[in-house]
Amino acid sequence: QKEVEQNSGPLSVPEGAIASLNCTYSDRGSQSFFWYRQYSGKSPELIMSIYSNGDKEDGRFTAQLNKASQYVSLLIRDSQPSDSATYLCAVPDFSGGYNKLIFGAGTRLAVHP
Amino acid sequence: GAVVSQHPSRVICKSGTSVKIECRSLDFQATTMFWYRQFPKQSLMLMATSNEGSKATYEQGVEKDKFLINHASLTLSTLTVTSAHPEDSSFYICSARILAQETQYFGPGTRLLVL
């Protein structure tokens, strides 16, 4: 069974700071990675996907992938209180003959004014 | 694009009744839809994978006779919680995947309360 590990947090950062969220995965063969954001009481929404080693930037968000070390991270620049949510890392799993996502337990981020 | 809807958003029912939840992909065809359950302050838990025109694949420990899944078209999957009990009270979320992609797009969820 593939595993995706995240620190549950909470990760507390001041407004304006950089929030760094980390995720490690067990399957060295994984090729694609996803970050979802889930506000309390809401369903997850896709923030970013990354497929290649290195950085991928989208606005204030940067995803970083290091396949050799089997980790993927999400950086949030200029953190805002509205970024306070749980961030889920996900990796596809093709075992069992069908494609599903394995989610980490999520890291709760709290951005305080 | 990639909008997924769920209906109803919230339902309260008596113990022993059945509840049907609909999941629709509004602007794309979804060959595969997923059903998740999430209890308060807990992780997402995949219940089953639903492929259009075929039987759903249930995760270990999920009762297929209690949670009936139908995926009759490329834009609609339904989850029926049969003979619901208070312990079935939870947040049920569907997601849909576009053919040949790995990204899942989530519906807004259905909050079920069984009295």
Query: What's the count of strands of chain B?
Result: 11
**Measured distance between first and last alpha carbons of chain B:** 37 Å
Compute the CA-based radius of gyration of chain B. 13 Å
| Poorly predicted tracts of residues of chain A | none
Mean pLDDT of chain A, to the nearest integer, reads 94
Strand content of chain B: over 45%
Oligomer: heterodimer
Can you write the helix and strand succession of chain A as a string?
EEEEEEEEEEE
Major β-sheet profile of chain A: 6 strands, mixed
The number of helical elements of chain A comes to 0
Please estimate the helix content of chain A. Answer: under 10%
How many helices of chain B does DSSP assign?
0
Radius of gyration of chain A, Cα only, in angstroms?
Answer: 14 Å
Most extensive protein-chain contact, per-chain counts: A-B, 22 and 19 residues
Number of strands of chain A: 11
Give your account of this protein's structure.
The complex is a heterodimer of chains A (113) and B (115). Chain A is 0% helix and 55% strand. Chain A has 113 residues and is mainly β. With 115 residues, chain B is mainly β. Chain B is built from no helices and eleven strands. In chain B, a hairpin with a 5-residue loop joins strand 9 (90-98) and strand 10 (104-106). The termini of chain B are far apart.
Write the layout of secondary structure elements.
The complex is a heterodimer of chains A (113) and B (115).
Chain A: E1 4-6, E2 11-14, E3 19-25, E4 33-38, E5 45-50, E6 54-58, E7 61-66, E8 71-76, E9 85-93, E10 100-103, E11 107-112
Parallel strand pairs in A: 2-11
Antiparallel strand pairs in A: 1-3, 3-8, 4-5, 4-9, 6-7, 7-8, 9-10, 9-11
Chain B: E1 4-7, E2 10-13, E3 19-25, E4 30-38, E5 45-51, E6 57-58, E7 67-73, E8 76-81, E9 90-98, E10 104-106, E11 110-114
Parallel strand pairs in B: 2-11
Antiparallel strand pairs in B: 1-3, 3-8, 4-5, 4-9, 5-6, 7-8, 9-10, 9-11
